[in-house]
Task: inverse folding
């Protein structure tokens, strides 16, 4: 009973710490102090600009414009495709200005069609469109030369009269292509501290943005430097010390807007609404740069309300405590049918498993919600979470029954090795599922790591009970199974590369690597029973 109380108290303390709200000196989004501008894309649910035939209904865009007019003076668009040519008319009706984008790429015919369409919009809505952005990161993508881009900019300028014209790209590409300066009316740079080659921590993001702005201003004097894209993601994987979170997003936006007001420069935030479709291109983090969430269209940070990374923490804590109690009850009920008294180490193993699982269950559920996109990833993360929930329960039963962690041979090997008891089969399947997902994610971090999420929470829930059971009830004799040894070697080798590649500042990586190593050691210590004859 004492261990159960300690477990529940630890879970409560962890959630009290995780959910501690952050109060900011300036509300990130305050209707009383409207934003200068915010990037706008209208896509919801399964809608995506990757489908060139998709046209967003006018009513949907009108609803967004009415909502954005409450917090911003302007919206920035990137093209006139997918129904976005309706934005100037609908924005003008609610008093919004538009920074109109011309999407340029490698297709000359499409470029000309975009330019013609935008020129027409500037003539139809001269009081709404306050600037034209000719091309967005086309140099970064390598789809056009600087000389061709200058030609397109000059062509647009000749047709839009007095409407100012600019080009938008990551700040380094402006410094690499200074010939653009003479062609534009103002300079539009993108500064995304999270995506810098050397990622910037959230607490340093505003200062970094201002430093880059001033550096570009020295290179391009006498013209306004507009920060055309900046912001911070609210969910996704860490990059070195740069952590996406609700609180960090609110902090970066708050501090940047305060700095912009004090120093008198304009900022366009990216972006108005979370865009789920971007997760296909950029992983989880790509879908969570919005000030509003994608589905409910709720503002993430209402003025006057402290920001918490876990606004539903009481429910998450309650679920974790419930799981912890189930784990302890499993151990207690198992003992009722056994004649012996377990060692203290057995109860300690159950307590550690229950506490880890209970503390991390809410985090794992939160990550499942944010990181599942598409049926494949949803099934994968749901399977890992299921393993994380079942592992402490099944390991508690095995620990109190005196059973060891089953090997793959006991489920998949020849008949003499197989153990068909229900508990053994279920625990063995849980080990196999965990091993497969651990190996797949570890290899992903080695060969294609940029957009992958770290499965530290659910993986810890599954692996810690395995390690505890292996320690308390390890089979002393037998041969080391080839399958377990292979998985152990793969995980250990991957950890060396991942740790080096991600760096010590990335605590998500360090934590995940520690769990990989613990799992590798657990699998390496496995022994298959000797079969005589």
Result:
């Amino acid at each position: 009973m004492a261990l159960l109380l300690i477990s529940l108290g630890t879970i409560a303390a962890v959630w009290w710490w995780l959910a501690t709200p952050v109060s900011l000196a300036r509300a990130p989004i305050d209707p009383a102090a409207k934003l200068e501008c915010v990037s706008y894309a209208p896509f919801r649910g399964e809608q995506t600009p990757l489908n060139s035939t998709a046209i967003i209904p006018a009513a949907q865009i009108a609803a967004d414009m009415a909502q954005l007019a409450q917090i911003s003076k302007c919206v920035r668009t990137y093209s006139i495709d997918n129904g976005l040519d309706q934005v100037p008319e609908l924005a003008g009706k609610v008093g919004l200005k538009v920074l109109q984008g011309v999407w340029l790429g490698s297709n000359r015919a499409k470029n000309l069609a975009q330019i013609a369409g935008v020129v027409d919009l500037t003539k139809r809505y001269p009081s709404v469109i306050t600037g034209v952005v000719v091309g967005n990161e086309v140099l970064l993508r390598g789809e056009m030369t600087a000389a061709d881009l200058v030609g397109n900019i000059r062509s647009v300028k000749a047709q839009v009269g007095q409407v100012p014209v600019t080009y938008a790209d990551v700040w380094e590409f402006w410094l690499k292509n200074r010939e653009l300066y003479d062609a534009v009316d103002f300079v539009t740079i993108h500064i995304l501290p999270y995506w810098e080659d050397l990622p910037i921590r959230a607490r340093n993001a505003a200062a970094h943005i201002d430093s880059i702005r001033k550096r570009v201003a020295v290179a391009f004097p006498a013209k306004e430097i507009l920060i055309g894209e900046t912001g911070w993601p609210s969910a996704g994987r860490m990059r070195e010390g740069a952590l996406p979170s609700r609180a960090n997003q609110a902090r970066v936006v708050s501090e940047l807007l305060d700095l912009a007001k004090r120093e008198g420069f304009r900022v366009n935030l990216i972006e108005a609404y979370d865009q789920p479709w971007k997760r296909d291109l950029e992983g989880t983090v790509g879908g969570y740069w919005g000030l509003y969430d994608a589905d409910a269209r709720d503002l993430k940070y209402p003025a006057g309300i402290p920001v918490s990374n876990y606004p539903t923490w009481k429910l998450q804590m309650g679920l974790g405590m419930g799981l912890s109690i189930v784990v302890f009850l499993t151990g207690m009920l198992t003992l009722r049918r056994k004649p012996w008294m377990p060692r203290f180490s057995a109860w300690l193993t159950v307590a550690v498993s229950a506490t880890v699982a209970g503390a991390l269950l809410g985090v794992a559920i939160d990550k499942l919600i944010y990181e599942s996109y598409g049926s494949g990833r949803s099934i994968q993360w749901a399977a890992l979470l299921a393993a994380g929930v079942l592992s402490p329960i099944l390991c508690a039963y095995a620990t109190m029954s005196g059973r060891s962690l089953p090997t793959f041979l006991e489920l998949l090997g020849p008949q003499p090795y197989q153990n068909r008891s229900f508990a053994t089969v279920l625990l063995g399947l849980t080990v196999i599922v965990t091993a497969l997902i651990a190996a797949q994610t570890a290899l992903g971090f080695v060969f294609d790591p940029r957009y992958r999420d770290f499965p530290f929470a659910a993986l810890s829930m599954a692996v810690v009970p395995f390690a505890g059971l292996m320690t308390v009830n390890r089979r002393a004799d037998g041969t080391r199974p080839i399958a377990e040894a292979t998985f152990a070697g793969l995980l250990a080798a991957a950890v060396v590369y991942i740790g080096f590649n991600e760096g010590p500042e990335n605590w998500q990586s360090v934590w995940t690597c520690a769990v990989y190593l613990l799992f590798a050691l657990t699998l390496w210590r496995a022994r298959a029973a000797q079969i005589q004859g």
Q: What stands out?
A: The chain has 17 helices and eight strands. The first strand starts at residue 37 and ends at 39. The radius of gyration is 28 Å.
